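hey m, so remember when u said the tokens were messed up on ur end? i reran from scratch. heres the input so u can diff it against urs
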Amino acid sequence: MMKYNNPKPKLLIVDDSPINRSLLSDILGEEYETIEAENGEEAIAILEKLGVEISLVFLDICMPKIDGFGVLEVMKEKRWSEDIPVIIISSDDSGEHIEQAYDMGVVDFIRRPFDAAIVKKRAINTIMLYSKQRLLASMVTDQIYEKEKNSNMLINILSHIVEFRNGESGLHIIHVKTFTEILLRKLVSMTDKYKISDEDISIISTASALHDIGKISIPDAILNKPGRFTDEEFNVMKTHSKAGAEILEQLTLYKDEPLVRVAYEICRWHHERFDGKGYPDGLVGDEIPISAQVVAMADVYDALTSERCYKKAFNHEKAIEMILNGECGEFNPILKECLKSSADTIRNEIYHAKTMNSCESVKIEIPTEILKIDELSSSKRLMFMYNYESEKNKFFSDFCDDIFFEYHLDPSILKLSACGAARLGLSETIVNPFEEPTLINKIMTAENTKKELREYSVNEETITEHKCNILLDEKIKTVKIVSKKLYSFSDKPVYIGVIGKIIEI
């Protein structure tokens, strides 16, 4: 019968007495891998290196350099104590110290001298308890992720249907969402006036994709008119903001959900202006919800920088200048300051979105006849649209000459586009890329090292570019590597990976 070599759980024993450490190691060594530290300073270094590989810490209180309370303080500050349980073993059993230890997150307190059987039993119980907690937390996290992913997917499908009917590319949705998130984060960093949380940023950015959903009520002859509207046509066009809000208001089962409430605000009021000269309700100043104010600016920016049948696209700098000068209606002065401060970030992020979609050089539109077939239910139409887009994106990604890559930190995996992998002479999927030859290290050079990435400030620039020479098509060639660092959406965002493109110069 095949035997599996499962590693033993790691226990960290922290005590300045070699005898005490040796005694605990002897008691626990058969069932656990024990690691010893003779003071708090060593313990912190081990925890920094091994993290949740440590299943349990046995900690003394009185030690030189950094005592037990010092270790607990660091563990609390770095949030290690949420995942790594600590049992205090000490002869100092004063009520004040015991209470302080529990207040700092320890799970148990064992007085010395102790009974070996009790130590073993408490170690087993504590490790089992935390293992179950980690499993449950992982399951809940996975369920939340899947729920959010499915919600975002359906929202984007609906939004793309509106965009295709309007004769625009789906990039408009991506640009508005990107702009909205950047501006909201800048707003939070500049003022606390609007009390916006990370969750609010996520909801508003997601809901922004629905800002023009009311356009499904506009007749094709007006919606796709090749030229400027007459006054009468423009009045019809302006009804889309109210129409979108009414669609969402009729979702009786979901209208109290935060996402739907925010989407309602954005749909109805993203054409209002700060001076009261917008529509449909002529709201003034902060009568307009901040969600709608930000999406309004995002919508105007993308309209300016996109080509239309009646105008050429303005460049980024000109678009920013026009918005700041009030040429597109008046905006909140605070948001204008945020726009000035984040103009470079917006340019880089929007450029990156266009770069990552540059393979799609041939515009393919879904025939409107397909969407009008009576036999197709709404769900089948949605599924058709989704499958159509998925197949199209996969085709262009597989056959274009550009090299796209995607790096996941945990687990450490580098994925290359099919064509890119062939040109580099590598596999499409590479596990632990930092352990691969120099070529892979050059691809990841823009990201420096894992340690630097983990300490990277979310408020700093996330788009990086650098040039290097690599073996491409069996020849040494100079390339530019453009990459975007990705962070989790949490109270304290952490680095989770990179997406990027290698461009031959």
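this time it looks ok to me. The CA atoms of residues 91 and 498 lie 50 Å apart. if urs says something different then somethings off w ur setup not the seq
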